[in-house]
């Protein structure tokens, strides 16, 4: 199969090839990746340096970079990936970045997308753990400005996605009900329940709409590799605690604690906090003040919140610690997200083209819009807009993003400086 590309968009041959019946299509890599590993790494690295505001804001930064600016994938495909990554446990924004890297540059592209997005904050937090010791959580005035700019970034993403994914009465209603459910039932399982129910509603009620799966996407991962990832994911969940008990190794204990924390998180990076606290503080590996200081620093740097694991690994009292401890904890806490991404994508690429699956995805995507709208209110708005000046900064940032089309990293810098000036 030949894939041709003009100006960053697929030709009609791509769509025809993607929809042609192939009995063995899911059993082998189905496309030639359209980009290079280096390209993916550099773009993800820039996002890793500039994506402040937490996992919900990351979705907005990713959409602006990958969908609006570079057009590596269309809005519908992006929304489908967001729904998949929100549904699975682990680091949602990191799974999304890896998925886009895989689609762009193959399986190795997913690994380098993760490296680019993760390394900047991981390095910063490791250095902080080694040099700063205990730092007060409220000592970084820049943090408030970054929270304020997150309001504008998320608002821009919600507005853009709502126009594309909830443009009619049924889907707008699903989005509104999803927002209400998430806000009124703020439990960890709430978002997953909303996604499932939205999918069921879409499956039953939205089949009459025209097919809107977007351009056909071929996932360059064979099914056998996806199955191997699922086996590894479950095997490590079962085997690591047994090996930890049998060998009594501190390295195994750290890897096991970080791996289970990363595997059992639903709802984003902030939810990993109590899991890590229960693993690290009672054991005496880090003190409570040290733990809270690191969490404050993790919110002040760009990139995924899961890089907090690197801080904890570096700050541990017993060995392994330092750079080795940071590396072990960092790999372990992200490994479940990697295995889930590589395990789920081979089926996602096929299922999203089926009429029933398309109908369910219409409902799920509308539900995702509602979830993002709920997140815009809580925690993004409620934690950032505390004074009239905060609203003014957020409004100016939104204007710069939507009307003046300023690059997000410039808006982030300006809002961060503004936050320090008015603090």
Molecular structure report:
The chain is mainly α. The chain has a domain at 223-339. The chain is 73% helix and 1% strand. A two-stranded antiparallel ribbon has the order 1-2. Helix 3 packs across helix 6 (142-165), helix 10 runs antiparallel to helix 11 and helix 13 packs antiparallel against helix 14. It is globular and about 60 Å long. The N and C termini lie far apart (58 Å). Mean pLDDT is 81; it is low at 1-32 and 134-140.
Give a short summary of the structure.
By secondary structure, the chain is an all-alpha fold. It contains 17 helices and two strands.
Q: Which labels suit this protein?
A:
single chain; 423 residues; mainly alpha; two-stranded antiparallel sheet; 17 helices; 73% helix; globular; disordered N terminus; Chr_Tranpt_l_chain; chromate transmembrane transporter activity; transmembrane helix; Chromate_transpt; transmembrane
Write the layout of secondary structure elements.
Elements: E1 5-6, E2 9-10, H1 12-19, H2 37-50, H3 55-69, H4 75-87, H5 92-131, H6 142-165, H7 169-184, H8 188-205, H9 223-247, H10 250-263, H11 272-280, H12 288-300, H13 308-315, H14 322-351, H15 355-384, H16 388-402, H17 408-422
Pfam families: Chromate_transp
Biased composition (Polar residues): 1-12
Keywords: Cell membrane, Membrane, Transmembrane, Transmembrane helix
